[in-house]
Amino acid sequence: MRPIRVRDQRAWQELSQRNRDWLRRWEATVPPAGPARPASARPTFRQMARYLRHEAAAGRMLPFVVLHRGRLVGQLTVGGITWGSMCSANVGYWVDESVAGRGIMPTAVALAVDHCFTGLGLHRIEVCIRPENRPSRRVAEKLGFREEGMRPRYLHIDGDWRDHLVYALTADEVPEGMLNRWRWVRGQGTRDN
Hints:
Layout (H helix, E strand, L loop, with lengths): L1 E2 L5 H10 L1 H4 L21 H13 L4 E7 L2 E12 L5 E8 L8 H17 L3 E6 L4 H9 L3 E12 L2 E11 L7 H10 L6
Parallel strand pairs: 4-5
Antiparallel strand pairs: 1-2, 2-3, 3-4, 5-7, 6-7
């Protein structure tokens, strides 16, 4: 993993285009404009990357690209970073269908969580996933995130407000570190690693 860069545009767009059908059901969409909210055009990659990096510089977000054998294969974003008495964030991710199921995304999430807990000093990480998104749910479950419940009509995804399951983990639950836990789980030979 590494921070997203404007020069990732070509690889990111090719990957996104190739995986459009695979990702469409899970991608965030902008709700229709209303009286208090003007219509907004989908940002270009360059605008998105600049926005993400601006938010990172402000300490509100950590936008990463996920690499496998030197090739961009996905994106992971730590967002909603909240300090003060909460010290929490949420993680969102997607991966190229051609490498799904190889342990790439659980490894990336484990690295991000360890950075959040030990590098940043956050206390809690959430992952919110549509109930039908079994592959993403498996990532959270493999890593030991606990399911906390349903958030009805939580995010605008694929053109409508969608329910999401909340998975969460606190730093106290992984004193050995998330990556160490994931390595142990993989070493046990559990299915679907």
